[in-house]
Structures are given as C-alpha cells and as structure tokens.
Design brief:
mainly alpha; rod-shaped
Length: 131
Amino acid sequence: VHPGENDSGNSVAVLGTEEEEVQMMQEASTVPKIEELENALRILREEMANQVVQRYEEEERAKELAKTKTEAEFAQPLAALEAFLKQNGIDPEDSPQKVRETLSKRQLRREREERDIERREARELRKQQRQ
C-alpha cells in the first residue's frame, strides 16, 4: 500500500501531521474509555454472579423453611398415630405394609368374634324359646 492509497488501491487523503496528531489523541482518549467499559462490564458480571448466588441462597432458605413448617404441621398428627399404634401393640417403626396386615388381621379376628357372639346369642335365644 502506497501513501494516499487504501488496501484496495483507491486513493485516499494523506493525513498531515496535524491530522495525525488529532487522530492519535482521539485513539489515546478511547483507551481509557475502553478500560472504563471493561471495568464496568467486570463489575456488572460480579453483581450478576452475586445476584445469582443470593437468589440460590434465598431459594434454599425458603425450601428449608417449608420443610420445617411441614414437619411442624405433621408433628402432632404423627405423634398421635404413633401413640395409636403403640396402644394397639404395633411397632411404629414397622413398614406400612406390615401395619396394614396387622390391623387387617385384628379386624378380621374382631369380626369373627362378633359373629361367634351373635351365633351364641342366637343359639341361647332359640334354647330359651324352646323351653
């Protein structure tokens, strides 16, 4: 490229010394601006990262609070259920399946006993009616 031509070979005005000085001053003034912009961008990135971390921490606190609240809501009914199971001779640590089986067996036994009582009473009633 010759003075007065650009890369394509077209002629352009050659900067004189005064124009070169102005251009160099403009370029020099853009360097601090670029540095300021880069600094501002870095600060923004840091703030965004802090906001993301803060949001995550807030969500974690909210989850923990919800969990604690849920545990508190179910503490009394759970204690009542455990007391009921213990009163009925069932280990609260048994699996739900085992508890159901135990309660089901007891229910069947109770129903059988009730039927036996009803039969006995009916038998006794028939005996009395015959006499």
